[in-house]
Amino acid sequence: MSKPSLPSGTRDFGPDTVRKRSYILNTIKAVFEVYGFQPLETPAMENLDTLMGKYGDEGDKLIFKILNNGLNDPKNIDKARAAFEQVMAGKNDKNLTERALRYDLTIPFARYVAMNHGQLALPFRRYQVQPVWRADRPQKGRYREFYQCDADVVGSKSLYNEVELTAIYAEVFQRLGIPVEIRLNNRKILAALAEHCGGAEKMMDITIAIDKLDKIGMEKVKEELLERGLSADQVNSIEAYLKIEGSNEEKLAAVEQLLGHIESAQQGLQELRFVLELAGATSVSPNGKAQLVCDFTLARGLNYYTGIIFEVRAIGVKMGSIGGGGRYDDLTGLFGVPDLPGVGISFGVDRIYDVLEELGLFPETIAVGTEYIFFNLGEAESRRAFQLMQELRALGKRCELYPEAVKLPKQFKYADQKKIPNAIFIGSNELASGTLTIKNLLTGEQREVDDIREV
Amino acid sequence: MSKPSLPSGTRDFGPDTVRKRSYILNTIKAVFEVYGFQPLETPAMENLDTLMGKYGDEGDKLIFKILNNGLNDPKNIDKARAAFEQVMAGKNDKNLTERALRYDLTIPFARYVAMNHGQLALPFRRYQVQPVWRADRPQKGRYREFYQCDADVVGSKSLYNEVELTAIYAEVFQRLGIPVEIRLNNRKILAALAEHCGGAEKMMDITIAIDKLDKIGMEKVKEELLERGLSADQVNSIEAYLKIEGSNEEKLAAVEQLLGHIESAQQGLQELRFVLELAGATSVSPNGKAQLVCDFTLARGLNYYTGIIFEVRAIGVKMGSIGGGGRYDDLTGLFGVPDLPGVGISFGVDRIYDVLEELGLFPETIAVGTEYIFFNLGEAESRRAFQLMQELRALGKRCELYPEAVKLPKQFKYADQKKIPNAIFIGSNELASGTLTIKNLLTGEQREVDDIREV
Fold first, then answer.
1. DSSP code at position B176
2. What is the sign of the dihedral through the CA atoms of B40, B44, B49 and B52?
3. Which of A333, A411, B154, B417 could form an SS bridge with A121, CB 3.0 to 4.6 Å?
4. pLDDT band for position A362 (cuts 50, 70, 90)
5. Residue B287 scores a pLDDT above 80
6. Measuring CA to CA, which residue among A304, A347, A341 is closest to residue A56?
């Protein structure tokens, strides 16, 4: 058998990495819980029907499809051949593949809500932390299997939901110790900008161009807008809008001056002011790590957002956004259940991991697995050690007995490799006196104690 | 769009179910941790090569394969056609499918150890809790996506590992409140039985037949053994062996009498006695919920076990085993790394869930998500409510504000549907007096307090 390997774009997570990832995920989940969000889990496999056509043509190509089993059973063989021809013609066919791996958590959530909305208490506040799969070309920071971590409220138009999601962002990054900017904008203001520049049908063109500002810069954005058929005057208005700067209040006033004559801008500004005021007054405290920033250049790629949109960036680290989200009018219309608006946010777990590494913010204690190792010094000694270890475990301490009575240097090396901070020795002396010797493997300090509870 | 549905054999886990499942999984993980086991996570997708041929012909058929992307790209089209013909001929071909979903956690673990054994501290104590996928025919209690929950120690032959795994079983079911029998046998004793009945080559025939004893009964097992070519005398010996009963000591003595002249039986009995003594002396206390039972009819289906084998059954519930495992000589030989023996156990999470439901053993508190709902009684009132809610959340309490100022019966209905135990009212009176009213929604008891910390 050839040397085993992992599929490209996938990762094993060894013990240290799992502990660090769990630290992040447990921190986020704990905040979701105090905010009254409820956990949901959906299966990795969805019917292909459920996923296809939801992510655009490019997205469709990145969905991992599962081959049906038993294709070469005599009863399936003709159908499978016909289906294969369909697939080669660029279509889908249930007789070759009827299931696929989930591509994100939003569509499975929408599918769940559509299937269960009769029984759900609305508004439904759910969080979901599960892996998703995409057949993207793997590169640094981009994987084919990665976790998404979402919270959504559906069935409510109240802006208190936006306030709470903002406060969740602030609280999570406060707990993780990451200084962040929570950037806010409102699609209603972008809609007003489009109206100001020739009509609502320009909305997508403008949004797509603005979304690239960070990457390609102002001049290229202007070029693209001209190419997309906007006039020089219109492009100048957009430039004036994109160049708005200052404090939040100054920026809000400038947008009001530029677009205040349009109703959707008025509404968008009012919504932003409400969220800034309420979220700013609570969790996002002056001592907090989170700053709320109106960023009118923020567009977000997804076209289903209709209200306030969010993006989070770590301050002092060169990295894309570590969170994002927004309000949408219609979660489940695609699945036959209309009129369910909502708002949601997402955390970029892999990037948050990288930020914590770069800033050295993972607590040192989470690297420790086993806290105490009992060295194995022989048959009678290890029996006694085993009894004492069980007492220590009953106190909630993580410990293990080296299972073989091999030479001590080998046992020390094992403890060192596993970064175990304490070793307990029970040799013939300790056995005779009923004591035990404990050594701090970091400082070298050693002492004898009478009772296991004194370690 | 047609009504959405779930792929057959898969499940959504709504909030209540996730909470109950997390209770089980967190209980098990906490015990793994105090026993010094370390978490590992591997990707859902493995290379098809890694999985094929590891689970027998029947297993191979149940592996979910992932269709390669871009099959109808002009550069792939000829290879894809040729590959499809291979698949229709019952073979695998990387040009159609090169990846598959993991079928269990053991082979990915073996693949991980083979890839990383140079860096691993041995013995390596790992636990892993992740879903697996099998294209089995769905039926009651059998799913196409389900969780496995494994702990293994590799790189050690010491029987202390068996002792610890036995103690882990006892401790987990003690914490969950489930009375269990932990049944033990030793493949070495089955090997001795085979030797006694005509030679080692009979081992698999005997094991396979004995494994069916529970399902088909003694007479059918005897018939099967005769069909498999054993003589009437040999079948009588096996029947005598299978009918051994009494206390553990009585059973051990009876096996000794029957097979004690064979060395592997002697060794097998000695190992069982060691584990029974040490495990019995600690966690498996007289007050404990776990009974250690020698069960010489226990065979376990998998043919890679070579030493002590385990099976756990809930006492007082009609259900198959809720855990199982055993010792193996060679984890990673298939991946080119020889001589890594180990021992492992597994928990049947879905069945444990069903046992806890049937016995009514889930703690009532885990059904509670939100602890306090703040009713929304208007604009100024909800602003005040929101501030107080943030203070309560800072104290770690799970709460939410009903986001819209709708009529009270609707808000009460929502609280009832979500089983929220407490409601907090801040109306115009409370706003004026700076107090708040809290109502226990279970008892109806209502009181006014001055300070949010008094709720």
1. H
2. positive
3. B417
4. very high
5. no
6. A304
Treating both helix axes as pointing N-terminal to C-terminal, what angle do A232-242 and A203-211 enclose, rounded to 10 degrees?
50
- A-chain residues near B441 (CB < 8 A): none
DSSP character at residue A131: E
Over residues B256-278, the pLDDT tens digits come to 999 999 999 999 999 999 999 99
Residue ranges of the domains in chain B? Answer: 15-41+105-359, 369-454
Compare A289 and B129 and report the one with higher pLDDT: B129
Cβ–Cβ under 8 Å, residues B121 and B88: no
Considering Cα of B27, then B181, then B367, then A40, what sign does the dihedral take?
Answer: positive
Tokens 């006695």 sit on residue:
B273
Nearest to A52 by CA among A68, A71, A67, A65: A65
Answer yes or no: do B153 and A403 touch at CB < 8 A: yes
Write out chain A residues lying below 8 Å of B387, CB-based: 281-282
Task: Name the CATH code of domain A15-41+105-359 (choices 3.30.930.10, 3.30.310.50, 3.20.20.70, 3.90.550.10).
Answer: 3.30.930.10
B-chain residue closest to A131, CA distance: B44
Query: What string of H, E and C letters represents the secondary structure of B282-312?
Result: CCCCCCCCEEEEECCCCCCCCCCEEEEEEEE
Over range B19-44, report the average pLDDT.
Answer: 97
Please state, in angstroms and as integers, the Cα–Cα distance from residue B85 to each residue in A65, A220, A241, B82, following that order.
19, 49, 59, 5
Crossing angle, helix B15-34 and helix B349-358, to 10 degrees?
110
Measure the CA–CA gap between B120 and B22, rounded to whole angstroms. 29
Which homologous superfamily is A369-454 in? Anticodon-binding domain (3.40.50.800)
> B336 and A3: CB-CB below 8 Å?
yes
Task: Quote the CA–CA distance of A235 and A222 in Å, as a whole number.
Answer: 6
Tokens of A147: 């976790």
CB contact under 8 A, A39 and B88: no
Residue B408 has pLDDT above 80, yes or no: yes
Q: How does pLDDT run across B293-338, given as a tens digit for each residue?
A: 999 999 987 678 999 999 999 999 998 899 999 999 998 998 999 9
B226 min Cα distance to partner chain A (Å): 34
Per CB-CB distance under 8 Å, the chain B contacts of A67 are: 64-67, 87, 96-97
Whether B180 contacts B314, CB under 8 Å: yes
**Rounded to whole angstroms, how far apart are CA atoms B35 and A72?**
47
Q: Are B259 and B196 in contact (CB under 8 A)?
A: yes
User: Cβ B396–A2 below 8 Å, yes or no?
Assistant: no
How far apart CA B160 and CA B158 sit, in angstroms, is 5
Helix (H, G, I), strand (E, B) or coil at B345: strand
Number of inter-chain CB pairs under 8 A, A vs B: 269
Contact B80, B71 (CB under 8 A): yes
